[in-house]
């Protein structure tokens, strides 16, 4: 069977960012306006007053300090509290296409490849701008790649599921070199008026080159030793309306159509599942947990990552062993674990092992065990 490697990664980061303090100021302005407007009903007990947020609460609950966003002004407008992203004509590249192309160019350069070497494109992400034509086909055409392309969505696990799909295509002979991209505009479906989740998401795009090891020429190659995927249906993380199609007649977002989650249940149910999956995978490969140099985990919540890595290793993981980008990027859905991998892989030495793992709505879990060549 063909051996498959990851030979390059790329990252697109939006130019705008929002700190916790900025986000809280806008949220609290909205809360105070809401409570003032509805004072009579609140005093009569027919409506519940909204509670303010604060930066300390956000950092304690999530580990997030800041996030990159596609549109800052719309999110920080207390009267709007949603990104204002201008429509583009059908003749213009989509926003996700632009993000994907930028990340893809870095990944191609790192892998030492040109578009002529790529024959398959996967766009794997939580938030697709449209049903069809596929964003992946648009990216393929924008880059000038021959072959085929398709979109896939397994929520926050989309990137790891995409890596396995790419590996399968290479091993079956239907592709030689695959570009897998994760353009996430997570802020487009976030309810910025919900105190429990208004701080969670940021925007970013990652790209990964996966190819036949015999064709790889990059100085930094990671051999895919194993992949493992798992899904279990749950409503504890849900988004009923997809991307930005979530407004009522007034132009405001309907809460039940935006991102919602039962955070406590997610924490309680997902952490043991993720740790058990990684541990079982390592056991199958006869790799002691202590032989892992790095765990590039999904960047959703710092406490979750700490618990998962502790269960796998049997001890607290250092920041070097389980790096964090959550503090400055927030949760970027499928892109999170790949951002961590992209930024914290260059120091890995030949023969050292690591695991990329993502998890989220579905529930879905994808883990990829890698060895530096």
Descriptive account of the structure:
With 373 residues, this protein is α+β, with helices and mostly antiparallel strands. It has a domain at 222-372: Peroxisomal Thiolase, Chain A, domain 1. It has helices spanning 20-37, 39-44, 55-62, 72-76, 95-111, 135-143, 158-172, 263-284, 302-313, 326-329, 336-343; strands at 4-12, 16-19, 66-69, 120-124, 148-152, 177-185, 203-212, 222-231, 237-238, 260-261, 292-297, 353-360, 364-372. The protein has a nine-stranded mixed beta sheet with strand order 5-4-6-7-1-8-13-12-11, sandwiched between helices. The chain has a two-stranded antiparallel sheet with strand order 2-3. Strands 9-10 form a two-stranded antiparallel ribbon. Helix 6 links the parallel strand 4 (120-124) and strand 5 (148-152). The longest helix is centred in the last third of the chain and has 22 residues, at 263-284.
In short:
Helix content is about 35%, strand content about 20%. The protein has a domain at about 220-370: Thiolase/Chalcone synthase (Peroxisomal Thiolase, Chain A, domain 1, 3-Layer(aba) Sandwich).
